[in-house]
Design a protein that fits this description.
3 domains; Toastrack_DUF4097; mainly beta; 4 helices; elongated; about 350 residues; 25-stranded mixed beta sheet; DUF1700 domain-containing protein
Length: about 350
């Protein structure tokens, strides 16, 4: 069967499929023919590789368009962590009230797209792993047009949670209590509504981060994405961006915050130690009006501004207020520094 004959037969078999899906499938098969011909294969060889159009469409109509797993066979006594990996899917994590792990993988717009991937769920010692992998022999195009979703419901127990994504967003839309929490994304955004963990580590390249978190140690970093941490509470907060803006609001004993060209905007309570560092970004630090401090400020071309209610002493690049409880070190090359209450 040559290309023309194959595509005519495929188009006829697609009459029972909705128009949008039919157009996408026709384009996918056209791309396969173009690629095969560019590699030196004949139209007949490509047709044979693709298989009978009627059988392919029949298989798609009979296969489930969602891959769901309700895992009730986990050894909950051994389970200490859940690890989630999905390169291109949006990941949503919630916490349930039972002991099982619930997983649902689907495409929210074109159900056929889920057939490009395989959902794997298994227990590996103390870790329950959830992994979405693209199939090498899939014939539907990946990328444009995909709206993949991976929904995970965690057990009620406070397990360690590790999430790794690339282009998809990561969301925790409801309160989650866990052990150690780590999330890594490349270009996807990350949004956490209310997370209570022993320790938190969030890493993003170009995606924006918005998170309300509590933990003894909270670490968050981006390259070009903005970083917004609100309602936070912990002993130590470590925050870093390259060009993204950084905004932190919460209670910490100690804070380390740095950026190259992004601005730092911090509102911190209960702080004993703060170290703030930028190159060209501005720094704005807001403290409770009763917090005394010693602040050392270093700059080359930036300005220092202060709006403090407590009696203030200034000696060069050093400010003293109240009982001098908080130790603050702020350094910037060309950015301005403002401290207020």
């Amino acid at each position: 069967m040559n290309r023309k004959e194959y595509m005519e037969r495929l188009q006829m078999d697609l009459e029972a499929v909705d128009e949008i899906t039919a157009k996408e499938i026709l384009q996918d098969f056209t791309d396969h023919f173009d690629q095969g011909l560019s590699e030196g294969r004949s139209e007949e060889e490509i047709s044979e590789e693709l298989g009978d159009p009627a059988e392919l469409i029949s298989e798609l109509n009979t296969r489930p368009h969602r891959q769901a797993q309700a895992e009730t066979e986990t050894d909950s006594e051994l389970l200490s962590a859940v690890a989630i990996e999905a390169d291109s899917a949006d990941i949503t994590v919630r916490q349930g009230t039972g002991s099982e792990v619930l997983v649902d993988f689907y495409d929210s717009r074109n159900p056929l797209r889920v057939h490009n991937y395989r959902l794997e769920t298994f227990q590996d010692g103390e870790v329950y792993r959830i992994r979405v992998q693209r199939l090498q022999n899939s014939w539907l195009r990946a990328g444009a047009g995909e709206h993949l979703r991976l929904d995970v419901t965690l057990p009620s127990a406070s397990l360690d949670v590790k999430i790794a994504g690339m282009s998809g967003d990561i969301r925790l839309p409801e309160a989650v209590n866990c052990g150690k929490f780590a999330a890594l994304t490349q270009s996807g955004d990350l949004e956490i509504r209310a997370l209570n963990a022993e320790a938190v580590q969030i890493t993003s390249t170009s995606g924006d981060v918005r998170a309300a978190v509590r933990g003894e140690l909270i670490q968050a970093s981006t390259v070009s994405g903005d970083l917004d941490v609100s309602g936070a509470e912990g002993k130590l907060g470590k925050f870093r961006t390259t060009s993204g803006d950084l905004e932190v609001q919460g209670r910490f004993q100690a804070v380390l915050a740095e950026s190259k060209s992004g601005d730092l905007d911090l509102s911190v309570e209960m702080a004993e130690s703060l170290k703030l560092d930028t190159i060209s970004g501005d720094i704005h630090l807001k403290l409770p009006h009763t917090t005394g401090f010693v602040c050392s400020f270093s700059t080359i071309s930036g300005d220092l501004r202060q709006h403090i209610s407590l009696p203030l002493q200034r000696q060069g690049r050093q400010l003293r207020a109240g009982d001098e409880h908080a130790q603050i070190a702020a350094k910037t090359i060309s950015g301005d520094f403002k401290i207020s209450d």
